[in-house]
Amino acid sequence: MVSTIHLVRHGHHPLLGKRLCGRMPGVQLDELGCRQMSRCAGLMREAPAALQSSPQRRAQQSASILGWHFGVPVEIVPAFDEIDVGDWTSLDFEVLEKDPAWKRWNSRRGGSRPPGGESMRALQQRTVQHLEQLRRLESDGTVIIVSHAEPIRAALLYYSRIRLDDFLWIDVAPASISTLAVDPAGIRVICVNQQVPA
């Protein structure tokens, strides 16, 4: 049975903190992001039984760096794709701050959604469903999933029994590792937002 699941956020990219990228195509790691992912690999001691990635380019790049380090292939898993932020995709945060719907979304994640996008609850359902499927796999060892802040946060909130509206309680930094322990009783959070050395 899978015993450990590491949820790893992709490394730094040039638009981080400037634009809401969502599923915007072509967003790639910069030099800092590549260095972060190399250091991230060094924090994990054992090669994973499986290495999975969001379909987004920045996550695939990050997973490929880990895959090279451990000598394992990368499997693309749509369940851990970035949240679909709909009409907000690629907007500057300065623009979003003026939108009342953006403020509502950030105060009531459990009951709102981006215009034309995906709710946090739907995101949580797809990530948790995937993790529960992994829990039942026959293969032994560790699984690494490379994804984004919101899918990782949604999963951690669920297994920490924290409401979606309280999403800011959990930080997920670039190239950070959050770890879930898996046993016959279920899945539990054992580490959140372990960050790579500067």
How does this model look, in words?
The structure is a single chain. With 198 residues, the chain is α/β, with parallel strands linked by helices. It has a single domain (2-194), classed as Rossmann fold (3-Layer(aba) Sandwich). It is 34% helix and 19% strand. It is built from six helices and six strands. It has helices spanning 31-43, 57-70, 93-96, 100-107, 120-135, 149-160; strands at residues 2-9, 50-53, 74-76, 141-147, 177-183, 186-194. It has a six-stranded mixed β-sheet. β2, α2 and β3 form a beta-alpha-beta unit. The longest helix is centred in the middle third of the chain and has 16 residues, at 120-135. It starts with a strand and ends with a strand. The mean pLDDT is 94.
Mean pLDDT: 94
Can you list the strand order of the major beta sheet? 3-2-4-1-5-6
The value of Rg in angstroms is 16 Å
CATH architecture: 3-Layer(aba) Sandwich
From the helix content, strand content and strand pairing, which structural class follows? alpha/beta
Count the beta strands: 6
Give the biggest beta sheet: 6 strands, mixed
Q: How many domains make up the coordinates?
A: 1
For this structure, what is the CATH homologous superfamily?
Phosphoglycerate mutase-like
What share of the residues lie within helices? 25-40%
Residue windows where pLDDT falls under 50 for at least 5 positions: none
